[in-house]
Amino acid sequence: MVFAQFIFLVIFISQFYDNAECISFFHFTQDPPPVRDIALMSRYIVHHSDWATLSYLGNQSFMDGMPMGRVYSVSDGTINNSSGVPYIMASPMDLSFQDVVKTKNCSLVLSLAQSDYCKKKSYDPEDPRCAQLTLTGKFVKLDKDDPEWNVAKTALWTRHPVMRKWHNLVPGHHWQFAKINIEHITLIDTFGGRKYPTIAEYFKATPTFNYWPKLRHSVITVKKNVIIDEEFIN
């Protein structure tokens, strides 16, 4: 039934948009673990986040020492493999990247507000039940000869496929990979205050990928830089 809907949608759209490019994505969703399992909840948030806010101290002359923030796409692994290490791809032309490479100290803030979970539960992004996580540590730029370079590339390019094209779309930006070396973890996932899973507990926790209660299909049609996004639920 779903496949028939997909074919019908492609045919229908093609009637109005010549030479349209159709791409089908399959998004898997999984409810968060119990709030009592703070390490697993932390790993869940990291793995199910597509983006995060990187906080750091500015190092530019006009913002020297001032707190700054920048949204980056993140990934800790392919959809069925979670390492717990958040990776970022950025250009050295990015002033935020320049600053955090120098200052190194940073925090990465991730929230389930970007997921369907909080929307389904009618949780406001500030509601503690709409879990949020702060990873504090050191920003580490990876070298091309570092084995982790390819790990980061695979993690990001499989979760953010458009990144593969950035080298051609914006040439000369010398895209690089980086990670956060986590030193402290702060979790808020329900009422009652903050929680602090240890680094050992965090990396010991093993997310499961053996149940997916909902499969969402997206069909994206591109025509002359106009994107039409259609979704239907299985």
Automatic annotation (TrEMBL):
- Leader peptide range in chain numbering: 1-22
Keywords associated with the record = Glycoprotein, Secreted, Signal
Q: Where in the cell is it found?
A: Secreted
Q: Where is the CREG-like beta-barrel domain?
A: 33-204
Superkingdom is Eukaryota
Q: Which family does it belong to?
A: Belongs to the CREG family.
User: What is the protein name given in its UniProt record?
Assistant: Protein CREG1-like isoform X1
Print the organism lineage: Eukaryota, Metazoa, Ecdysozoa, Arthropoda, Hexapoda
